[in-house]
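Predict the 3D structure for this chain.
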Amino acid sequence: MSLQESSLDKIKSLINLRKKPFNLKDQDIKWVETTISNMTFDEKVGQLFCLIAYSDDENLLKMMANHAKPGGVMLRPMPAKSAVDTVRLLQENSKIPLLIPANLEAGGNGIVLEGTKFGSQMQVAATNDDEMAYKLGVVCGREGSAVGGNWAFAPIIDIDYNFRNPITNTRTFGSDPERVRRMGVNYVKGVQENGVAASIKHFPGDGVDERDQHLVTSINDLSCEEWDATYGAAYKAAIDEGSLTVMIGHIMQPAYSRKFNPGVEDKDLLPASLSYELTTQLLKEQLGFNGLVVSDASSMAGLTIPMPREQVVPQVIAAGCDMFLFTRNQQEDYEFMKKGIENGVITEERLYDALTKILGLKAALGLQKKQEEGTLLPSLDTAMKVIGNVEHKEWALECADKAVTLVKEEKGLLPLTPSKHKRVLLYSIESGDGFFQSSYNAAGEFKKLLENEGFEVEQFNPQAGFEGIMTPANSFKEKYDLIVYMANMATKSNQTTVRIEWAQPMGANVPIFITSIPTIFISVENPYHLLDVPRVKTYINGYSSSEPVLKSIVEKLLGNSDFKGYSPVDAFCGRWDTRL
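Done. Predicted structure below.
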């Protein structure tokens, strides 16, 4: 495929790689243009895709690099050695250096299992310290680049307006648009100063709907004016800071779709990932974004519901995304993309534009220079000096100390002492793996911490029983001085609600003794549990189930440290009874 010289010159002038966020020099621009001109058709198609690696299987990785020829390959969290081996195999077998993204949302643990779990974005927001968002970005950038990562699918600048949303929650900087804007900018600055491209997400903004775009096309139904003042302001600020990329969500924004396409029928409204109006007209033209645009995962139902897969694949690029994230079936999706180019759904101009942005990002990160110099491949020895280092762990402790939030307090209960509250009954509410997090027995760790301070802790196990023959209430009053609930229920994809499911029989672990035994409810992942335990008088949010957070909670319960956290959301869920 070749473009006429006049069309090519016009596209070059529109892209302008010398401007923000690429800021390329003439030599870099020449590499971009020369590389594109020397590509085969299959190589051009391959560059449009960002695939995923789950392991360091040598044969699989070599096949991916040599045959699929993708523009990038994302890493899910794996041991550091596996991550280094994976990146080395991929880069060694790729003619054009690869983008290596990861979900670096909460720390280096987003790419390697040994990485620092700094804290969720909402935990950072609860410190009310913008510098903490910068430190989060620095840790993500340092630890990500140490193993060869060069692209953070972060920060999330969604706004957690709807407490029922099952996916945003603690992954966001909260529900205050101004705080989201400031902290998003600080993360972008921190991560990009350390050689890793930021990707602000999920445009045009999640958190208004209560549905999950993994399962259905969701909706941001703000008016244009409301969107401009909230989500739009956050995106514009991060763009002005120089964010190199934006991730497009499978989220509709009807007000702007109608503004740019008057008369569009409801049935024809599309998520941003398929919408020219939202991705090209709103993001690129109105907000002036000149960097790379990547779709969110193409396996998500929010993308695949609106039209047949054969139309979806090329339409993502035609709408304005420059890269297509993942595949449902690699061979089939590649063929759909080729067909979309051949039949003109993706024009030659749009294809050249997308390839220029992809290679422009690689040049902005200096990947071609590192490849030429032989410094592109990571070293495990060097990486292990960065991953989980002392400074990063100290920052994580600082974040935990500043974030833990005392939402409600029963007068006279705190601080706890073994002399007054010796016998503790601990209720554990766990939900397994959190979104992009490892399973963690928070209650078990918390129990050990209390026992180390001299408390006697018994973990509750429901006993069989029916009306009339259940355990007498007085036996609880005689046996325990304190009841503590530890809830570790993180949001995760492919679910519809995050609510407490009480144990059988008859809700055996429901807090029914709050008027007779002092009770504390602690949530380390989800800030909205007061909806289900409204009359609990002492309630604490930790926002992460990490070891630093659990230690900080205990220190504050004992009165050794003050509660310093500010609630970044309405933990009372807008209900009057939760404040009782």
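The domain at 23-384 is CATH 3.20.20.300 (TIM Barrel).
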